[in-house]
Amino acid sequence: MRLVTYRAHIEAEARLGAIAGDLVVDLAKLGAAQGVQLPTTMLEFIDLGPQAVPIVGRLLEEAGKLFPLGAAIPLGNVKLLAPIPRPRKNIFGIGLNYTEHVAESAKSLDTSPDLPRQPVIFSKPPTTVIGPGEPILHDRTITQQLDWEVELGVVIGSTAKGVARADALSHVFGYTVIVDMSARDCRRAGQWIYSKGQDSFAPMGPCIVTADEVPDPQTLDLSLTVNGVQKQASNTAYMLFKVDELIEDISKGITLEPGDIIATGTPAGVGAGMDPQEWLWPGDVIEAQVVGIGTLRHPVVAA
């Protein structure tokens, strides 16, 4: 199931929907027509627990293509927002999680050339999140080294505290696309949050694909282009620490809660790793894709 947060028009409230073919189906309206109360937001839907997705699947199947009046809108007529427009907590970012990215970072960003023995974890505030098509802000008074990183995003569906790797994926609600924007010249004493945590630095979407449709998150192709030129192309199989390992590791000391998000790291091909180095500037456009989940397209604009 592909779940979205959308606006029917520019002044409408944000609503929770499911993509059905070329339509967005409003889940609260679909449920009301069949006597089932469903929430209007993604976080409230995740909070319903593991029974929520099967319930909606049944409602969609029963409706067929005969949706209640006003419940279905052509996908091309809505404005998609980030699936979780305002996360409750910081996004968990994972650094140096692909072998070739470790090597290119060591050459250009003064990080260790040795493969990490444990996941490298940082965070991105909720204010970094933007939805599909929204502008990435470039403030030239803050950074001259704005960089890109395509990543698989993992959305937690149930509380995970001290979980074993074998059980970790059972706590996943679904997957999305995240671009971990980075101002490389804004690292401070080895700390990354100001570099990666500025407003608009976490494009997310265009949907959440529920975990039942992604049986193995380590088989997904991901790529990124800048102005139509491919910069990154890899597969999640090449993660150093797999999704289940990341959940196991984080949950040892930090409770993962429904709606929490993990950005699982990026492959090689970032601007800092180019020779000569390449940076984003106003007027540039990036496209990031995880095959089977979706594509994000964002312009870079002057702040």
Order of helices and strands: EEEHHHEEEHEEEEEHEEHEEEHEEE
Structural class, by secondary structure, is alpha+beta
| Average pLDDT reading | 96
Question: What share of the residues lie within helices?
Answer: 10-25%
Write down the overall geometry.
globular
Instruction: State the helix count.
Output: 7
Rg computed from alpha carbons, rounded to a whole number of angstroms: 19 Å
- The tally of strands reads 19
Largest sheet: 12 strands, mixed
Beta content: 25-35%
Distance between the termini: 36 Å
In words, what does this structure look like?
With 303 residues, the protein is of the alpha+beta class. It is 18% helix and 32% strand. The chain contains 7 helices and 19 strands. It has helices at residues 27-33, 42-47, 52-63, 99-108, 165-168, 193-196, 243-253, and strands at 2-7, 15-20, 23-26, 72-74, 79-81, 91-95, 120-124, 129-130, 136-138, 146-147, 150-156, 172-179, 182-183, 202-210, 221-226, 229-235, 261-263, 285-290, 294-302. The strands form 3 sheets. Strands 1, 2, 3, 4, 5, 6, 7, 8, 11, 12, 14 and 17 form a 12-stranded mixed sheet that branches. A 5-stranded mixed sheet has the order 9-19-18-15-16, with no helix packed on it. Strand 1 (2-7) and strand 2 (15-20) form a beta hairpin.
List the main descriptive attributes of the protein structure presented here:
alpha+beta; 5-stranded mixed sheet; 7 helices; globular
